[in-house]
Amino acid sequence: MSDNDDVPxxxxxxxxxxxxxxxxxxxxxxxxxxxxxxxxxxxxxxxxGTGNVAIIDPGPDDEAHAAALLDAVRGETVSxxxxxxxxxxxxxxxxxxxxxxxxxxxxxxxHRASRPRFESEKHNPESGSDRDFAxxxxxxxxxxxxxxxxxxxxxxxxxxxxxxLAFAWPERKVNFVGDHVxxxxxxxxxxxxxxxxxxxxxxxxxxxxxxxxxxxxxxxEIPDGPRFVRFLIRHRxxxxxxxxxxxxxxxxxxxxxxxxxxxxxxxxxxxxxxxxVLAHLExxxxxxxxxxxxxxxxxxxxxxxxx
Length: 307
Hints:
There is one protein chain. This protein is of the alpha+beta class. It is 25% helix and 21% strand. The protein has helices at 63-72, 94-101, 196-207, 225-247, 254-261, 270-286, and strands at 20-24, 27-31, 44-48, 52-56, 77-82, 104-107, 137-138, 144-146, 151-156, 165-169, 174-178, 213-216, 222-223, 252-253, 290-292, 301-304. The strands form 3 sheets. The protein has a 7-stranded mixed β-sheet, with helices on one face. Strand 15 and strand 16 form a beta hairpin. Helix 3 (196-207) packs antiparallel against helix 4 and helix 5 (254-261) packs across helix 6. The chain is elongated. Residues 104-134 are annotated as: Disordered. Residues 42-218 form the Metallo-beta-lactamase domain. Pfam families: Lactamase_B, WHD_BLACT. InterPro entries: LACTB2_WH (IPR041516), Metallo-B-lactamas (IPR001279), RibonucZ/Hydroxyglut_hydro (IPR036866), Sec-metab_biosynth-thioest (IPR050662), WH-like_DNA-bd_sf (IPR036388).
């Protein structure tokens, strides 16, 4: 396969909720039973190492999932808990696991938006954020945390959220990429929680790294990760081109663009698609390609700059 070929999304993920599966030596995963149009079959938590282990992304506020994770590490010591980002399907179970294990919690920091909210923004798209989460230890890009037989490097990947981190295990050429890259679907980037400008820069950062096996927050693992990331970059640029193609026909609003671009979309995802278009428009307005009156917001109208 050349880099110019499309990489198809892989929706084949037969893992059942609550079952522990070893996917590589030193890497196990457990699926939470929280399927939805946004989470696919559910959130995947990872166990790194053997004996003295780390857990990545404890998942939503779900007692059964916490019990499944604790059962998977019975007889072992959980020394570290890592959280990729603070959406409610990833971080709220942290408290349960910390209380049960005494592990230290590592993450970029508490939840925050990618930019200040505009005065004209009425709707709050951040209802999915976990504002109660705070790590014991804040980690920044390039920080390395070592455990018994494993070593994870924090990779700043803002975009899906401002505080999103991936955790790379360079010696194993493995990267736990959270929701920044998923094999089953594109990630949602919804301003002001997310930022397309940051998201694209983060894709470039991942594409330049050597880890080639990605483990995502939802869905199956992604082999040849950097090539898949280059596919995602092309996909986003194609989406931008579709927006510009529609705007070339005249000034319009976001719902009109969604209908023109997302043919046959699941109606439950229409709102999310609108925020994804807004994320692209924010980027285009910042670059001076597209114009709007006032701030770039979900209810605004947009036109080509100079039109």
